[in-house]
Amino acid sequence: MPKPHRDISDHRRQEIINHVGKHGIADACEYFGLQEDTIRRYMRGLPISGDTHMSREEDADGVLQYVVTSSDIRTLEELVAYCKIDLTKYKVVKFRCGAWGSAGNANFQTRGTFAPILDTVDIAQLIEDFRAEAAAYAPAYKKIRYSKKETGNMFEVGVPDLHHGQLSWGKETGNKNYDIKISEKLFLSAVDHLAYHAQRYEPEQIVFPIGNDFFNVNSRLKTTAAGTPQDEDCRYQKSFMTGLKMVVTAVDRLALTAPVVVVIVPGNHDLERAFYLGAALECWYRNHATVTVDNSPTFRKYIRWGKGLLGLTHGCDIKVQKLPLLMATEKPRMWADSLYREWHIGHLHHQQVQAWKPSQEENGVRVRILSSLVAPSAWAAQHGYDSLCEAQGFIWNKAKGVEASFAYHPS
């Protein structure tokens, strides 16, 4: 541990400096009984050997800079311990140690720069905000009694790439405006519309993929997970909390019709926030008997329904041509037990269907690239990317695979 600070008084220091000015360093050493290095350090305003001197600066971004002069602090670990820096909240940007003096009277000056680790405190605050919301909501769900009629149908809700939080100005993009309020209205309207058309099929189960770039940005920096800047409508706390409430509202409505399986699908815009959303939903529905949340960290999720096999992934990191074989190798038992196999992906914001046909047509694998409700961003408009705003619903039958599909188009 560094020795305690024991500098001399300003009066005594000035006395030594004045003596040096009149009689020289050699005479001052003899007169005061001090070493020459000590005298010179007093003249430069530095502490004497064994003393510890620290300075601390913080800039507007919260970056800390420490300078410690001591004979005892030489390493990064010693600097961190002496300055009491919490490395769970700060990362080391730069460290340097310099030395001067004689072998018997060596002194060291360590310099360290530490930047705050983004989102460490913010994520904790989000968790606390969620807990407060959950406590106020008190989600003690009553048991829902469903029809016992066996229809063999499953309803899939397809609302990928919502980009909740994106800001688009219609005059700039030549298209529709888009902001957090419009996003919420479109999302809930789409879920209600698709659920209304699914009622006639009396689904026994509902699959609700969430993620798939549900959020437009991944952090407070207003960038995607890869660091690409985005036009964002509001603070990241607000977009997360409103997004959570939107999904809870939608799931509660869907759960009145049939048990709901919420599947979290990571996207390239909201890779981390989608996981946090899934964790929040797991907590929220912990007491709900008929709502389950799949927040497993895998990038590809699978749902088998009778003879149908549904693969869900965002589609940003893998070529479409690889998906059929991946389905067979990653889920060989599900593959063997199924006849109708489809991948439903997002990312490209426009609808497209491709089919791979092995020896028999009924064993083909279809890859559907689903449409999005989001309006074009300024970047998308600049590069000529546009698509029909749409959400899709699918009815899966245990014996027939996808038996019906229907769409929601904003008015």
Which helices and strands appear, and what pairs or packs with what?
Blueprint: H1 10-23, H2 25-32, H3 36-43, E1 53-58, E2 64-70, H4 76-83, E3 90-100, E4 107-116, H5 120-137, E5 153-158, H6 170-173, H7 180-198, E6 205-211, H8 236-255, E7 260-265, H9 271-284, E8 291-294, E9 301-305, E10 308-312, H10 323-330, H11 332-336, E11 340-345, E12 352-356, E13 365-369, H12 378-382, E14 391-397, E15 401-408
Parallel strand pairs: 5-6, 6-7, 7-8, 10-11, 11-13
Antiparallel strand pairs: 1-2, 2-4, 3-4, 5-14, 9-10, 12-13, 14-15
Helix pairs in contact: 1-2, 7-8, 8-9
The largest sheet has its strands arranged as 8-7-6-5-14-15
Helical element count? 12
Topology as a string of helices (H) and strands (E)? HHHEEHEEHEHHEHEHEEEHHEEEHEE
Alpha-carbon distance between the two ends: 71 Å
Count of beta strands: 15
- Tell the overall outline: elongated
Q: Give the averaged pLDDT, no decimals.
A: 83
